[in-house]
What we know:
By secondary structure, this protein is α+β, with helices and mostly antiparallel strands. The chain has helices at residues 57-72, 77-91, 121-125, 127-139, 149-157, 169-179, 211-214, 231-242, 270-277, and strands at residues 281-282, 290-293, 306-313, 318-324, 335-341, 347-349. It is built from 9 helices and 6 strands; from the N terminus they run H-H-H-H-H-H-H-H-H-E-E-E-E-E-E.
Amino acid sequence: MRRKSLGLLALIAVPSLFLGLLFSSVLLLAPANPAAADCGPVAIVVDGATRVEGYSAEQLKNAAAVVGAGKALNLSVKGQTISIMVALGESGLRVLDYGDGPGPDSRGLFQQRDNGAWGSYTDRMDPSISATNFIKALQAVPGWELLEPTIAGNKVQRNADPYHYQKYWPDAVKIVQALSDGKFSVEGGNCGIPGKSGAGDDYPWKDSPTWLQVGAGSAAASPLGMFYRECVDFALWRVNQQMGSTSAPFKFLNGNFRPDGQGLGSAVTWKAGWDARGWPSGKTPRVGAVVWYAPGVGGSDPTFGHVAVVKEVKADGTYVEEGYNGNPPPDDHNYYTRTVKSSVPSAFLYLPNQEEKK
């Protein structure tokens, strides 16, 4: 579906305040629903009738031990699923009594090393104990719930490829769903959606006036130094949130983001701002990364472009982006989600805890 570029707004210069611009909807492929809030751990429902295609009864028994260890530690469903994903990537959900080339002393479901950090040989070979030790290490990772699942797992396991576990995520979700008797869904419902950025429209200033309503002055300025309900303000809120800064005084502001003293600015300058800060960028979508559209790219404003945030990465080469001010009036300056081909944006701007797979 394509619509003509709207090109409606011109930037109104105000010291330290910059607008994000209205983004035409030529990128829309399919509607996406906002994510629900994480609802905590799932309980195990396992009996002789539990089946997951491609997995044996022994593997499911081991998976149940992992999920049960998570529940005992009040680990969220996302954390339980990460734990299964890592066990799949390390051992195929089998208690292995051997290691590999990089770790010949690795043992058990999580291939834990004989370095004193993971207990005795008996501990490492016990599904429940080894899972408990993995989960405690995961919970000690700062901000792990805001990381991509594979990155969170890598922070614990420290394997060479941080994206090694990514391909195991769909099966991990399927196994946790089966073991929990389908009590949560990756498409929404009462539980959170593992691997998603944020919980839908949690922007703190969603009811604040826009500059169109009160003028391009201090009444429309958010605490981040942008105008309320612009694409740039939402994106900078998401950056702060993912970096652990969720209330004033915020760590990252329009005026202090760049070390060279320039403002982060309107959407057109964000790639330059990222480069000035030394943060990475690339062409691969990662959950939580800022999506940057150069002027005119993908239907963005021909002068100022657009920024959004990656909410979900799909296996078919698309991703779900979330943002503000991405729809035509009367739904401008509101939250939106849309599915976009990964090849459309100019770049993905990563946070320091993200990186592009080489």
